[in-house]
């Protein structure tokens, strides 16, 4: 749909307008509430995002996209533990879902649970050993634990897998600079 295309292009304001217009026509469309909530999370309109996502979940309580966006929102609101719980509930049904595992690892890291984040990134790598992003993210978690040698190894592996991926290059430079 047009709203999703606008989201993918990064035009969040237009996407929000599109979804609000759609909801003025059909105020019982859970997908429109879900996408509106996701766009508002990206715009950091946390109050509006919460309202839209709660509406989506009221209409369809098992709406995976709305649950994921709500977990992200709760993390942004400073309630990462609640977001973690939502993600873990979804993982019960899809234990190898890389998107969920990545969100879980990020949420654990935000809470300072680096060991859990490291274990989760390692699990992602077991599922997809060609994921340069997972190796980079594992490097970040290791770096946060001051294991710079292992972090550098993960950044190198990420660069080997995807030489055009700049994040591990930047992260490696930050380790060299002691940041």
Description of the structure:
The protein has 179 residues and is an all-alpha fold. The protein has 11 helices and no strands. The chain has helices at residues 2-8, 12-25, 30-42, 46-59, 64-76, 80-93, 98-110, 114-127, 132-144, 148-161, 167-177. The longest helix is centred in the N-terminal third of the chain and has 14 residues, at 12-25. The protein is elongated and about 55 Å long. The mean pLDDT is 92.
Query: Quick one: biggest sheet?
Result: none
Task: Count the DSSP helices.
Answer: 11
Number of strands: 0
Name the average pLDDT.
92
Morphology call: elongated
Q: pLDDT below 50 for ≥5 consecutive residues: which ranges? A: none
Task: Report the order of strands and helices.
Answer: HHHHHHHHHHH
Radius of gyration: 18 Å
What structural category arises from helix and sheet content?
A: mainly alpha
Q: Please give the share of residues in helix.
A: over 70%
CA(first)-CA(last) distance: 42 Å
Proportion of beta-strand residues: under 5%
């Amino acid at each position: 749909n047009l709203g999703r295309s606008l989201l993918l292009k990064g035009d969040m304001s237009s996407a929000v307008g599109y979804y609000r217009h759609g909801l003025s026509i059909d105020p019982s469309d859970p997908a429109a509430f879900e996408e509106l909530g996701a766009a508002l999370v990206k715009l950091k309109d946390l109050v509006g995002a919460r309202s839209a996502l709660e509406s989506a979940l009221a209409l369809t309580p098992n709406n995976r996209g709305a649950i994921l966006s709500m977990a992200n929102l709760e993390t942004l609101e400073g309630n990462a533990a609640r977001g973690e719980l939502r993600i873990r509930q979804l993982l019960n049904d899809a234990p190898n879902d890389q998107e969920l595992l990545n969100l879980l690892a990020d949420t654990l890291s935000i809470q300072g649970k680096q060991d859990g984040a490291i274990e989760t990134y390692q699990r992602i790598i077991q599922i997809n050993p060609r994921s340069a992003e997972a190796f980079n993210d594992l490097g970040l978690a290791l770096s946060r634990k001051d294991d710079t040698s292992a972090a550098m190894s993960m950044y190198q592996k990420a660069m080997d897998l995807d030489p055009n991926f700049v994040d591990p290059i930047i992260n490696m430079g930050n380790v060299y600079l002691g940041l």
